[in-house]
Amino acid sequence: MKKRSIQNQLNIAFVSIGVIGILTVTFIMAFLVYNNYNRELERKMAMESNMIAGELAAQNFFNRYYYELEKLSVFAEVSHRVLILNRQASVIYDTEDIDRGKLYAVPEVIQALNGKLSYAYAKQREVRMVVLPAKGIDSDVIQGVVVVMASNREVMATLRMMIYAGLGVIVSVIFLILMASFWLSGFITKPFTELTRQLNRIKDGNFDEIKGDERAKEVDEIISAANHMIRNLKDIEENHKQFVANVSHELKTPLSSIKVLSDSLLGQSNIEEELYQEFLQDISNEVERENRIINDLLTLSKMGNQSTALNIKEISVNELLETVMKRLKPLADKKGIQMFFESSREIQAELDEIQITLAFSNLVENAIKYNQENGVIHAKLDSDLKNFTVEIIDTGIGITEEEIYHIFDRFYRVDKARSRETGGTGLGLAIARQAVLLHQGNIQCRSEIGQGSVFTITLPLKYRK
């Protein structure tokens, strides 16, 4: 389906509103004119019929049928056709001499002979009638019937002229509205057209911020949101470049070491076996480090895929955290670090066991690597009605406020030299953060230099898809 531009939609809207408005006003005016005309006509006809009936009673006409009606003064004041009928519903007088002598036993005449005033409209002839019973001057006995008739053709012709005039006005107004709407819609859509032009620059890699428009608050809000998006795109682009540079550097470092070690081996003859074994062990360590980096990158890449399917099931968080700490205890023992686990209750939660194990393992392993000799690690588990929290508290070197802002970035290291000594890849916290985000949770850090750090994970007890 082809989409219309905003300008075309505005043009159609303006024309539609104008046409509907004019048609509505035209028909309302026609309806009011028609109703007012008929009310006034019926009032005048009723007055005339009463005048005639009164004059007939005063002259005792129905008992003196030979009386010449033309001599009645009341007819000089009557502007409509008048029929006078006797009790047999026979026309004994017609101002237009059309129906004299004819029987006029229509329902309204029968009702009048029974004493009831009637208003009628003959649609085919477009004639409106007032039918009035004529009584004697001193009695309530019905002597005959007075019928006053008036044609509606004039008012119908007037109404038709109004409608034709309204249609003519509509054509003129449509032309004027089209001209005005083209100008007005162009004025309204101009900021959007300019905004579209500036947004199209992003496709060419131009991330300059868009200039605002003071004429429209709504456009200014869109521009503000677009500029926020542009800033995010700049950050993403910068992060991408930094990531590529970091990956290149991290992958190149072990290869450079391997190259130096292998060249040293090849460049020496009659090398001692002990030195030979030492070089081979160093090469093996660098290969292992390269392997860890690649595996961590693959893990992070899979976790960053929005289509990643989580294997959610209800598990014991207590057992999971205890298992992680038990597995890493030998690493802690090498540095004389004591590890403690605290929990006030058994907590069950809907989690992907593998992903959350990665998060817990990376946090605890970091707490061991960056802790002081003979330090302490506390793992605390607690929950409320909706979420559970895990705190990993260490007595390590601490992290500055500026570094806390970056610690979840890929390849970011607080102490680069020490990180390489401990075999870190710089991806552990990024993996932990991604695993937590996949479960709609959050991870935070607070730290003090020389006192240690606290990493807090908050996750929902029930997984929300």
What is the average of the pLDDT values?
A: 78
As for the number of domains, it is 3
Report the C-alpha radius of gyration, rounded. 50 Å
Shape: elongated
Spell the H/E element sequence: HEEHEEEHHHEHEEHEEHHHEE
Which CATH architecture of the largest domain is right?
A: 2-Layer Sandwich
- The level 1 CATH classification of the largest domain is Alpha Beta
Number of strands: 12
Which sequence of strands runs across the widest sheet? 2-1-5-4-3
Strand content: 15-25%
Number of H- or I-type helical stretches: 10
Unreliable runs, pLDDT <50, ≥5 residues? Answer: none
**Which topology of the largest domain does CATH recognise?**
Beta-Lactamase
The biggest beta sheet, please? Answer: 5 strands, antiparallel
Amino- and carboxy-terminal Cα gap: 33 Å
User: Structural class of the helix and strand makeup?
Assistant: alpha+beta
- Any idea what the CATH superfamily of the largest domain is called? PAS domain
Q: Helical proportion?
A: 40-55%
If you had to describe this structure to a student in words, what would you say it looks like?
With 465 residues, the protein is of the alpha+beta class. It has 3 domains: 6-158, PAS domain (Beta-Lactamase); 217-301, Helix Hairpins (Orthogonal Bundle), CATH 1.10.287.130; 309-460, 2-Layer Sandwich (Heat Shock Protein 90). The chain has helices at 6-58, 107-113, 153-200, 217-267, 273-304, 317-334, 353-369, 401-404, 416-421, 428-438, and strands spanning 81-85, 91-94, 118-122, 127-135, 142-151, 312-316, 338-343, 348-352, 376-383, 387-394, 442-448, 452-460. The strands form 3 sheets. Strands 2-1-5-4-3 form a 5-stranded antiparallel sheet, with helices on both faces. It has a 5-stranded mixed sheet with strand order 7-9-10-12-11, covered by helices on one side. A two-stranded antiparallel ribbon has the order 6-8. The radius of gyration is 50 Å and the shape is elongated. The two termini are 33 Å apart.
